[in-house]
């Protein structure tokens, strides 16, 4: 593997949140442990959510990596599609309100909910 597949949640030009896959090059390290270049960060937070918690549609306020440490979560998009993330899964959350726009609750954002009976613990790493 010379790249890492990164799942990205982003705001498309039509204002809707979508998923895509972006590759991150792994040019460093050794054949036993390939490394990407160092990616600057702006700090991290850990969140704990009990079973049954869900959110209305919202946008990410700051571009950030989300890593599921335990439990399961579902991210829903406006087109009705949903994607489940389990412990060890990740995505880069970058579905910001477009520059110059105000949040439109009929177009922008994504929803989230905790699945199952296990609390959800997530790690958020903000970009610099």
Distance from first to last alpha carbon: 27 Å
Largest sheet: 6 strands, mixed
User: What overall geometry do the principal axes of the alpha carbons give?
Assistant: globular
**β-strand amount:** over 45%
| Tally of helical runs | 0
Give an account of the 3D structure.
It is a single chain. The protein is mainly β and 128 residues long. It is built from no helices and 11 strands. The strands form 3 sheets. The chain has a 6-stranded mixed sheet, with no helix packed on it. It has a 3-stranded antiparallel sheet with strand order 8-7-10, with no helix packed on it. Strands 3-4 form a two-stranded antiparallel ribbon. The radius of gyration is 15 Å and the shape is globular. The model has no long low-confidence stretch (mean pLDDT 96).
Summarize the structure.
The protein has 128 residues and is mainly β. The protein contains no helices and 11 strands.
């Amino acid at each position: 593997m010379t790249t890492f597949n990164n799942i990205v949640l982003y705001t498309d030009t039509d204002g809707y949140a979508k998923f895509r896959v972006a590759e991150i090059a792994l040019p460093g390290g050794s054949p036993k442990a390939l490394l990407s270049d160092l990616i600057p960060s702006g700090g991290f937070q850990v969140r704990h959510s009990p079973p049954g918690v869900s959110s209305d549609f919202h946008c990410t306020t700051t571009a950030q990596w989300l890593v599921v440490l335990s439990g399961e979560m579902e991210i829903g998009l406006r087109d009705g599609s949903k994607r489940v993330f389990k412990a060890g899964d990740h995505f880069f959350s970058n579905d910001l309100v477009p520059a110059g726009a105000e949040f439109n609750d009929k177009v922008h954002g994504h929803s989230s909910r905790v699945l199952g009976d296990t609390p959800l613990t997530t790690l958020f790493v903000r970009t610099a």
